[in-house]
Amino acid sequence: MIEFIRGYIDYVCPEYIVIDHQGIGYEVFTPNPFAFQESRDKLVTVYTYEYVREDVRALYGFLTREERRLFAKLLQVSGIGPKGGLAILAAGRPDEVVRAIEEENEAFLCKFPGVGKKTARQMILDLKGKLGTFPASSAARASALRSEALAEAVAALKTLGYAEREIEKIVPALGLEQLSTEEYVKRALAMLLK
Length: 194
Known about the structure:
Family: Belongs to the RuvA family.
Structural class: alpha+beta
Oligomer: single chain
Main location: cytoplasm
GO molecular function, one term: four-way junction helicase activity
GO cellular component, one term: cytoplasm
Keywords: ATP-binding, Cytoplasm, DNA damage, DNA recombination, DNA repair, DNA-binding, Helicase, Hydrolase, Nucleotide-binding
């Protein structure tokens, strides 16, 4: 297994990032690719999970080992695949997900795309008492708004499986402030999960 990749961010899109490591570009799917956008031209470490099936071989990347550990645990739940695991982690709050599982808060878990009552119940049955603790996420980094930041955030939300009608409801509230794409995505996810 590849523990991590250390390199430079070469490309960022709503689904994945490309990390240039000594001239080789690794395509890495992440919960929020735009979290890495401000790290361009800086050496970054991305903790990876290698997903291998008969017809698929993909790398999934995370900012912390804790996020990666939760992703691996989520994949063990029947009904949750890599895309669903990324959507759950996209809010950037593994500690809240763990708390919801431990407290059997099905309503909170059902707010994630692709997670219905049956899958939420399965998550609780399979993972309760097996996740340990996760540190709270750090505050979002401040940055200046680039003209395409809101459009990129909307594209990322669509990639995560949110319906356009859901996104349209929150865009007016998001557009009031100047934020980075990452901050738009985190704020949008917080609004969508309420």
